[in-house]
Amino acid sequence: MTSISSSAASLRARAIPPLLETDPDTKATLTRAIDLSIPVGAGDHLVAEGRIPGRPDRPLLVPYTKLKKRSAATSAGRAVLLHALAHIELNAIDLALDIVWRFPGLPDQFYREWTGVAQEEALHFQLLRDHLRSMGCEYGDFPAHNSLWEMAEKTQGDLLARLALVPRTLEARGLDASPPVRAKLAAAGDHRAAEILDLILRDEIGHVALGNRWYRYLCTQRAHDPVAAYAELAVKYKAPTPRGPFNLEARRRAGFADEELALLQNPRSAVVAERQ
Ligand SMILES: [Fe+2]
Ligand SMILES: [Fe+2]
């Protein structure tokens, strides 16, 4: 095992301090400061000592079902909605950093690309945090849920499952969720928030595209059929059931195949096809 200190110069080791960092602002700043050009240390087996991920005392984490839905028409409701988005982005920083340090043995490009994703997530968090501050709120002011990180924990032993269920499932749901949320914010007259959501959606298509590309790379390496393997992983790890409406255009641009989009819209078609 290589400790963090003995390979502190590698890109993968540099993912650990921001992952363990508890202060959200510092986490985002440290993440954005990682130099993507340094040696990767792809083969190193790293140890992260500390609670993963580092989290602030606030927000209070509660089950998803305990969170109240608020109307985006009022500024108080909008703050709750933007806070929820900032929380997703903070989790997304940790998810991308975690994939970088945890899984050794991939091409250097894998680690540079996912560190780049962490940096974009850090920017998304900062944009939403700044906008919240302009409304008189701070990140931490409202309760939040932990279901994104729960999927990271469930899949920490298998990179194929992590790629299938985090970028290709949870982040891809974000592509579907974005247009209606953007429309609500714009209808409430919050054009800055709508602008931030446009930037986030553009970047998130790229993140899901990376998820698709590296998922298929691993499927090829392990001689798995990508569609069949996904169906098995979704059951094994209890992936959330996909619910429309789907942002098919964004999903297509993110590299989902026609067969995958058809299954998403009609999961029973797989069963029908097998019986024919
Ligand atoms: Fe993001
Ligand atoms: Fe993302």
What are its keywords?
single chain; 276 residues; disordered N terminus; disordered C terminus; binds fe (ii) ion
Would you summarize the structure shown here?
With 276 residues, the protein is mainly α.
Tell me about this structure:
By secondary structure, this protein is mainly α. The protein has one domain (5-275): Ferritin (Up-down Bundle). The chain is built from 12 helices and no strands. The longest helix has 31 residues, at 191-221. The radius of gyration is 19 Å and the shape is globular. The relative contact order is 0.11. Bound molecules: fe (ii) ion (2 copies).
Please write out the topology.
Layout: H1 11-14, H2 16-20, H3 24-32, H4 75-102, H5 108-134, H6 147-154, H7 159-187, H8 191-221, H9 226-236, H10 248-253, H11 258-265, H12 268-275
Helix pairs in contact: 3-5, 4-5, 5-8, 6-7, 7-8
The protein binds fe (ii) ion (FE2) (2 copies).
Q: How many helices in DSSP terms? A: 12
Indicate the structural class.
Answer: mainly alpha
Task: Report helical residue fraction.
Answer: 55-70%
Q: Say how many strands there are.
A: 0
Largest sheet: none
Strand content: under 5%
Overall shape: it is globular
Low-pLDDT runs of 5+ residues are 1-7, 271-276
User: How many domains, as an integer?
Assistant: 1
Radius of gyration: 19 Å
- In whole angstroms, the N-to-C terminal distance is 51 Å
Query: What's the architecture, going by CATH?
Result: Up-down Bundle
Which fold name is given in CATH as the topology? Answer: Ferritin
Indicate the CATH class.
Mainly Alpha
What's the overall average pLDDT, rounded? Answer: 93
Ligand set: fe (ii) ion
State the order of secondary-structure elements, H for helix, E for strand.
HHHHHHHHHHHH
